Amino acid sequence: MRRILTKQELHNLAMNIVGKELEKRGFEFIAINSTLGKQPQFVCIDASKQRYFVVVKAVAYPDNPHNYDMIWMESFKKHAREHEAKVFYAGVGLSNASDPSQPVYYNEDYTLEYAGLQVIETPLN
């Protein structure tokens, strides 16, 4: 019997995709939060000990995974500045591989639209 992935499962899939990229880039994980709706999902540092907050968003077809709520992001950028952190946004588009109008099912193929980590500038305007 086919089972549709829950929002939390889609979020976890997106986090796994982004986490693998962070590992490949050599980031060290300080904290990971997989709770849906809690930000950031990853707190990590690079080789120079610069702190990064990574916001991961799983987006279903037909929404654009590269867009984010700019008003909310302004408040998050303030939070990052207070912690001397830089911000990455990772929008992960997930859709059913055989029919994008259908949901993503457990143990079935999916299509991924992911452009990598998007740098969000945090300086004050």
Task: Explain what this protein looks like in three dimensions.
With 125 residues, this protein is an alpha+beta fold. The protein has a single domain (7-120), classed as Trna Endonuclease, Chain: A, domain 1 (3-Layer(aba) Sandwich), CATH 3.40.1350. The protein is 25% helix and 31% strand. It is elongated and about 45 Å long. The relative contact order is 0.20.
Oligomer: single chain
Q: Could you spell the SSE succession in H and E letters?
A: HEEEHEEE
How many H/I helices? 2
The number of distinct β-strands equals 6
Assign the CATH architecture. 3-Layer(aba) Sandwich
Query: What's the main sheet like?
Result: 6 strands, mixed
**Helix residue percentage:** 10-25%
- The CA-CA distance between the termini, in Å, is 53 Å
Protein name: Na(+)-translocating NADH-quinone reductase subunit F
Organism: Aquimarina hainanensis
Features:
125 residues, alpha+beta, Trna Endonuclease, Chain: A, domain 1, six-stranded mixed sheet, 2 helices, 25% helix
Q: How are the SSEs ordered, and which strands pair?
A:
Elements: H1 7-24, E1 28-32, E2 42-45, E3 51-60, H2 70-82, E4 85-96, E5 110-114, E6 118-120
Summarize the entry for a quick read.
The protein has helices at 7-24, 70-82, and strands at residues 28-32, 42-45, 51-60, 85-96, 110-114, 118-120. It is an alpha+beta fold. Strands 1, 2, 3, 4, 5 and 6 form a 6-stranded mixed β-sheet that branches.
